[in-house]
Amino acid sequence: MHDYAEPVTKLIDEFKRLPGIGHKSAQRLAFHILRTTKEEAERLVSAILEVKDKIIFCSVCNNLTDADPCRYCASLTRDQTIICVVEEPYNLVAIEKTREYHGLYHVLHGALSPIRGIGPEELHIKNLLNRLRPDESGECSVREIILATNPNTEGEATANYLGRLLKPLGLKVTRIAMGLPVGGDLEYADEVTMHKALTNRHEI
Amino acid sequence: MKLELVEAINFRNLSGSIELAPGLNVIYGANAQGKSSWLEAIYLLATTKSFRTAYPREVIRHNENEAILRARIKRGNLDKEIQLLIGATTKQTFVNGKREAVTRYLGILDAIAFTADEMEIVRGSPDARRKFLDRGIFGIHPSYLGTLNEYNRVLKQKNALLREASEAENKFKYQDLIEPWNDQLISLGTEIHLARLDYVEKLNEELKPELFQAEQITVRYKSSLEGKGDLGDYSSLLAERLKLRFDNELAAGYSLLGPHRDDLEIHCDGHEISKFGSSGQQRSALLILDLAQMSVYHNNFEEYPIFLIDDLDAELDRTRIEILLNYLGDNVQTIVSTSKRSIADRYRRRARTLFVQSGQVVEDLDIVQEKVELTAGAETTELTDPANEGGPLDEAENKSGNDKHRAPF
């Protein structure tokens, strides 16, 4: 490591701070940067600075955005009567990829987990409740909340907690279904998923 | 299911591999040579858990980072190879050379072990008996393991909240926080309750006390909610009790209700064996339970798991050994360990005998010699056998037997 000039060592050390990057990868990345043109390096630097400067959390739904409110919240074509609640921004992206859902979103940034010290206060629940308050005309545009937290015990507890909180407001509260992945083979399903899918079977 | 080959690398003091016969296998050798370690290795391969230690670090040889166990298993016409890689804090499972999730790994090799530690089931705390039941259930219903893990996860989360609440000023606000966990506790707890009830019923049908002319043995699942209401509607009852005892749970700071507080009662002629049974009765009862577990498994898969008996003669007297091994016969692949050479000699003709020294199966020179004698018509083992019965004589024979083995080296 002492063989490199100080600026190179510094760059390698910075890369090493990134998740999933060890010494060898950091070295490879640093040498890649050294070989590129100055313009390319500047493009990378400005891309990094741009996300830091421009990306903020939407004040309505907490999604990552470069404009507040975000493009989902600001859109006039999306269904304003339905909100889908997810744990993380990448869960939102997963649902959006289906192109089947045209309602609004709400990102909690986590799930309840007492052993990690995460309670309702740590999640973005307050501004969800704000969105459900009646406006000046005494009307609330939202009719349904879809709870799309993860299908594990923490996600389930979070959905359950929100269900109890939201039901008294007179809304339709739904939980996404759990079961087999479509397009796959039954044999690839794990036992727990298969068990849930069998329990929640429906008549055709 | 037949275990054909087991290989151990950096596992305790073991080295090399052992080849096993389809029926009875007797691993013998002096103390601390690695007999039990081979059985432990097989049990670990089957369950990923050790019957000797809860700390994986202990099985890794000194100054090594990881231990590797491999096995070749024949099921019908299928050959499967499994591998377990044991690190200080992690375990990795492989099937046919490829990394596989533990849920897909479990079930390829199934084993039931009769060991000194297992005596906890008949004389120890309820925890050991719950584990016995749970092991039996997920042996035949793999998805039960998921239910059990989820239940324990929910319990851990709920306990974290209760602990926090017990120290908080305003306990009242915790009701809303705990309810979501209670809801899951009820649905998962009910699944566990029903699965255990069903399994206990199946066990009862397969208990065969007449095998050892033992007293009538029965088992009964004892729910911690017994006498508190209608157990037939378990989920409603648990929900009701959780509501009723909410303040008690808050005060205690941990979960007081659910199937993690249940027990399995083992009765011997109407008496609870953990309290009133003699050591011999407890041993017979445990063996009958293990055999019943094996039968339930067989009813489900039309195949037997592997039966392991650690330190055969320390746990059972000669008559029981004889009855047991006859009962298991050629249907069940059985692997026993013993420090007594006389036992190995007694079963030599119907079993594969493996002599272990310093963790390794070594060439048994005496066997080669005896085989020659046997083919010559002299039934040496059979003739000398009666003289070897009983304790002190056995010991003496054992010592001289080992000396004989040491001589050539």
Task: Characterize the quaternary organization of these chains.
Answer: heterodimer
SS content category of chain B: alpha/beta
Strand content of chain A: 5-15%
* Range of helix content of chain A: 40-55%
Major sheet of chain A, described briefly? Answer: 4 strands, parallel
Helix content of chain B: 40-55%
Radius of gyration of chain B: 24 Å
Please outline the major beta sheet of chain B.
6 strands, antiparallel
Number of domains of chain B: 2
Compute the number of structural domains of chain A.
Answer: 2
CATH level-two architecture of the largest domain in chain B: 3-Layer(aba) Sandwich
Q: For the record, give the distance between the C-alpha atoms at the N and C termini of chain B, rounded to a whole number.
A: 37 Å
- The number of helical elements of chain A comes to 8
CATH topology of the largest domain in chain B: Rossmann fold
Any descriptors?
heterodimer; A: 204 residues; alpha/beta; Dna Topoisomerase Vi A Subunit, Chain: A, domain 2; 4-stranded parallel β-sheet; two-stranded antiparallel ribbon; 40% helix; globular; B: 409 residues; Rossmann fold; Glutathione S-transferase Yfyf (Class Pi), Chain A, domain 2; 6-stranded antiparallel β-sheet; 6-stranded mixed β-sheet; 19% strand
Write the topology of this structure.
The complex is a heterodimer of chains A (204) and B (409).
Chain A: H1 6-16, H2 23-35, H3 38-54, E1 56-57, E2 64-65, H4 71-74, E3 82-86, H5 89-96, E4 104-107, H6 126-131, E5 144-147, H7 153-166, E6 172-175, H8 191-199
Parallel strand pairs in A: 3-4, 3-5, 5-6
Antiparallel strand pairs in A: 1-2
Chain B: E1 2-9, E2 17-19, E3 24-28, H1 35-47, E4 67-75, E5 78-86, E6 91-95, E7 98-99, H2 102-105, E8 111-114, H3 120-123, H4 126-140, H5 143-167, H6 174-206, E9 217-222, H7 234-244, H8 246-252, E10 263-268, E11 271-272, H9 273-276, H10 279-301, E12 306-309, H11 312-315, H12 318-328, E13 334-338, H13 341-346, E14 351-357, E15 360-361, H14 365-375, H15 380-384, H16 391-406
Parallel strand pairs in B: 3-13, 3-14, 8-12, 12-13
Antiparallel strand pairs in B: 1-2, 1-4, 4-5, 5-6, 6-7, 9-10, 10-11, 14-15
Helix pairs in contact in B: 4-6, 5-6, 5-8, 6-7, 6-10
